[in-house]
Amino acid sequence: MPQDAFTLRINALELNAALSGGRINRINQPSREELSFIIYTGTHTVKLVLNTNARDCGAYFTEDERENPLVAPGFCMLLRKHLQSAEILEVSTLGFERILCFKLLCTSDFSSCERVLYAEIMGKYSNLILTEKGVVLGALKMTSLDENCKRAILAGVKYTLPAPQDKVNPLDFAALQTVLKEADGDRARFLFTHVAGLAPSTAEMIVSSYKGGDFAKHVYDFIFSNECEPCVTQTDFFARKVEGGIPFPTLSAAQTYFYTKRRAEAQFAQLKRKLESAASTAVKKHEKRLALILERKTAASGAEENRVKGELLTANLYRLEKGMKSCVLDNYYDGTELKITLDPLLTPNENAQQYYKKYRKQKRTLEALEPQEREVKQELDYAESLLAAVEVSASMDDLRSLEEEMLAAELLRAPQEKSRKKKAEIPYRTFEKNGFRIFAGRNNLQNDRLVKSSAENDIWLHTQKYHSCHVVIKTEGKKVPDEVLLYAAEICVKFSSSKGGRVPVDYCPVKFVKKPPKAKAGFVVYTDYKTVLVDPPEDSTLFPDKNA
């Protein structure tokens, strides 16, 4: 990320032009390392973000609405106390450091003074520090006065700059000329290691734009030129044009797009891992329970054999004596001879009763295990359907809908209520083909609602022998063409647990789809259906979700 002094200098010019003369109306702290300022510029209101996270550090405008905690953190309260209604006099960089200076005129009923908010954009060392007359009033990240601390940051101490690097400051042109006389070989690497305030990508841009002449002058002119052609690539944003970059009108707009996209990707990956873990845990739990039940069934599987032994002993009591360790009797059930082990301390009748007792116990066990096995298999099937749905999720709406279902099923621990806002209902996946609307559920709860809310002549689809979303084609009384049916079947396969090969998809009118009483969410039975074989779609762009 080229969040270096070169980029910050251009960023400061943009911020100064946009914010100079503006007033701070509101200050919030949506996360531990990020603050947002609502600023009225005189013509309109903007939202400025100051982020000190190691991966996302920067200062840029945004329109994102992030949820704020009900109780503001301490540093946010400090800024509200000192900077509420403050006028922004100037935004600049401090020398050629990676530090933005917000000079503020703070006026109250009894006093007026200037304060400076320093935004140190330095990767993992990023910080926000509020000062008055050079003395620290508070900081987002405080340090102590212990002997190992190179730079104390706490209220009451004098604000000092970070320790300088062993590099030349490009503001000193004479020193820059001297050091660049030794530049040879990999010049980009030399610039990065010998000139302060340059990221590797910036050094490469400087070298690639060099066409000959005084190299030191070229470096100086490049760094301190106000030329700006912001763009964003897959991996970074830049203040100058790069090949393959998406152009933006301002550097702030480029940063906003880049960080918003990366934050969304990180949130998606984090939530997906969380839901996958919860669903996998549920699957393993029910697999373990099922294995124990099957083990007990196997142990009790000799019930009929014990009943037969008890009957044969009872029928042959006259031939047996106490003290016998075993006997061989004719089995009149299959015409064979059966060897039966006996307890020599028991009478023949007592041995027969022992076998009857084992039979009754095993029979009770089998009767008790049957409903347990049925219930566990249903639970396992439901957990596997959730895991399959998580794996094919393609958007945050998909994951949030599954999160709601898992919370309702108590597979996730419900978080403490942090917001007074009522969450909007997440819509179905919505598609369109040849004038027909097609809906697909994002989770099992939506699948149930989709079937329940559909007309009886709408067409319902689901993969055969695989977990998948429920898909409904809204017919509105019209006959569904084959290409629409095939398109809907491909949607069904796309959001299913199938791994490849041709997949059978069943379809029928919604009136033939029924939900059994007390069945798990998403479970239905259906009749009068037909089946179409579908190849898994290769190009996902052929299925644009209207609500994505």
**Treating each run of at least 4 consecutive H or I residues as one helix, how many helices?**
12
* Helical coverage, percent range: 25-40%
Amount of beta strand? 15-25%
Beta-strand segment tally:
22
Give the termini distance in whole angstroms: 29 Å
Order of strands in the sheet with the most strands? 15-16-18-17-19-22
Q: Describe the global form.
A: elongated
> For the report, how would you describe the main beta sheet?
6 strands, antiparallel
**Could you name the ranges where pLDDT drops below 50 across 5 or more consecutive residues?**
none
Mean pLDDT: 90
Structural class: alpha+beta
Rg computed from alpha carbons, rounded to a whole number of angstroms: 36 Å
Secondary-structure topology with pairs:
Elements: H1 5-19, E1 23-31, E2 34-40, E3 45-51, E4 58-61, H2 74-83, E5 87-93, E6 99-107, E7 112-120, E8 127-132, E9 135-139, H3 173-180, H4 187-194, H5 200-208, H6 215-224, E10 231-232, E11 237-238, E12 246-247, H7 251-299, H8 303-315, E13 326-331, E14 336-341, H9 348-391, H10 396-408, E15 429-433, E16 436-440, H11 444-453, E17 459-463, E18 471-473, H12 482-494, E19 503-509, E20 513-514, E21 525-526, E22 530-534
Antiparallel strand pairs: 1-2, 2-3, 3-4, 5-6, 6-7, 7-8, 8-9, 10-11, 10-12, 13-14, 15-16, 16-18, 17-18, 17-19, 19-22, 20-21
